[in-house]
TrEMBL record:
PANTHER family registered for this protein in UniProt: ALPHA 1,4-GLYCOSYLTRANSFERASE FAMILY PROTEIN
Organism listed in the record: Herrania umbratica
Primary gene name: LOC110420270
Protein name per the record: Lactosylceramide 4-alpha-galactosyltransferase-like
InterPro entries documented for this protein: A1-4-GlycosylTfrase_dom (IPR007652), GlycoTrfase_DXD_sugar-bd_CS (IPR007577), Nucleotide-diphossugar_trans (IPR029044), Put_A1-4-GlycosylTfrase_plant (IPR044789)
Domain (Alpha 1,4-glycosyltransferase): residue spans on this chain: 305-428
Keywords: Membrane, Transmembrane, Transmembrane helix
Signal peptide per UniProt: none
Transmembrane segments: 21-43
Presence of keyword Protein biosynthesis: no
Domain of life: Eukaryota
Length: 437
């Protein structure tokens, strides 16, 4: 809000200078005010469009730095991602005001105490109740993915809108660079808001089809194996566990949305290099055995499935039957690995398991190298070789945001080069800043 006020003040001062010109001495006050109003609306709209991808709380200096860092030849980029925060009631809150996830139960409590804690929290949790926004969900999906959508993409954002930063916006930007005719729906109570619209406005203004909607969890799991799980959570017979509930809800929602509608699901910590038109009923291996060349771990950060696919049904059933909210990964990559390990060769399953290079060319343990600026000729050559490899064999590169969200993306690094090459909005901004020849 401070940024908007600053520019409002600047436009007001500019207007005062204009109205003091002699030409205005003979113009009526009414006409002058009308002209000023039109001028201000147009001016602010331009500013909103240019600045809307930045959170409200960012300072003017940070915006200027973001727009000029590269042009001034500095070695550090501000493409960083702040720690994810979970809001109650889908409200937009300042990420600096609260650094503790409010949906993590108190430590050192019994199962009964944790369930009691969750029941006390339940009335505040937007995703567990229906409201005017969530009840419109199905109609919004059908209306959005019309015949003009050759491919439908889904992402999930259960954190506050203010924590949706440059890193996350780069994922959206790269998606529309690779798939300009695609349609992206972001399932998010916080982005389904005025501030969310401001964040997405640069993409909308560029003609891309993107929409944030509040998901209706009850509708998504209705008539699926996970419907009973939701009932148990609400009536207090299910332990929510001691890790972030939003993490497990994200795992559930991605399975349910693909089961209901089909399409492509992607986490928001990808850089997308190619469109997904040629992929059907596919999921990526995170790792493989170097000797027998068989996968050892599957990851659900990127999934492409037809609606009603039997594997998605099995995923939802496994989620409901084996849910454990206290084990990181148990309801996510370990879940899809367990199920696929059982049914991979069973009849009736149309499934393609993609090699790690497709989505996970770098493991989370050594991805930090992709964020570093090359310091020697050998390192520079490694960057160039890596870019060639990624462009030829990788569909989208997973950034492992849980590990790298505080990393600085240094200028000249692999990630900085990819973000600069695979974007639409950033290139438009660069063109606007470059003086005409």
């Amino acid at each position: 809000m401070a940024v908007r006020n600053l520019f409002r003040m600047a436009s007001y001062q500019l207007f005062l200078r204009i109205v003091k010109l002699p030409i205005f001495s003979t113009i009526s006050l009414f006409f002058t005010i009308s002209l000023a109003a039109v001028f201000f609306i147009i001016y602010e709209n331009i500013l909103t469009s240019n600045l809307s991808m930045y959170p409200e709380h960012i300072t003017t200096n940070e915006i200027i730095t973001a727009l000029t860092t590269k042009s001034e030849g500095q070695s550090r980029s501000i493409f960083s991602s702040k720690p994810l925060q979970i809001t109650t009631e889908g409200k937009v809150e300042g990420v600096d005001s609260e650094n503790v996830d409010p949906l993590i139960p108190p430590s050192n409590v019994t199962r009964e105490e944790r369930i009691a804690w969750f029941q006390k929290k339940l009335p505040e949790l937007e995703l567990f109740k229906s409201n005017n926004l969530s009840s419109q969900f199905h109609d919004q999906v059908l209306g959005f993915f019309d015949r003009d959508c050759p491919i439908r993409y889904f992402m999930i954002w259960l954190s506050p809108a203010q924590s949706f930063g440059r890193r996350e916006f780069s994922a959206l930007d790269s998606l529309f660079k690779a798939s300009p005719k695609g349609c992206l729906m972001i399932l998010s109570p916080s982005l389904d808001s005025r501030q969310g619209y401001r964040i997405l406005k640069p993409l909308i203004d560029s003609g891309f089809k993107v929409l944030a909607v509040t998901p209706d969890l009850h509708f998504l799991v209705k008539n699926t194996p996970a419907e009973g799980w939701l009932d148990e959570m609400k009536n207090g017979s299910k332990d929510p566990g001691n890790i972030s509930l939003s993490y497990n809800l994200s795992n559930l929602i991605r399975l349910a949305i693909l089961y209901k509608y089909g399409g492509v699901y992607l986490d928001v910590d990808f850089i997308i290099l190619k469109d997904f038109m040629g992929l059907r009923n596919a999921i990526g291996a995170q790792s493989i055995d170097p000797i027998i060349r068989k996968w050892t771990r599957i990851n659900g950060a990127a999934m492409i499935f037809n609606d009603g696919h039997p594997l998605l049904h099995d995923f939802l059933q496994e989620f409901a039957m084996t849910f454990d909210g206290s084990k990181w990964g148990h309801n996510g990559p370990y879940l899809v690995s367990r199920v696929i390990g059982r049914v991979e060769n069973a009849p009736g399953y149309s499934l393609r398991i993609l090699p790690p290079k497709t989505f996970y060319p770098m493991s989370w343990t050594n991805i930090d190298r992709l964020f570093k600026k090359p310091q020697t000729e050998a390192e520079l050559q490694w960057v160039e070789d890596m870019l060639v490899t990624l462009k030829s064999s990788t569909q989208a590169i997973h950034l492992w945001n849980h590990r790298t969200r505080d990393f600085v993306i240094e200028e000249g690094s692999v990630i900085e080069r990819l973000i600069s090459a695979y974007c639409v909005i950033c290139q438009q901004r660069n063109n606007q800043q470059t003086p005409p020849i």
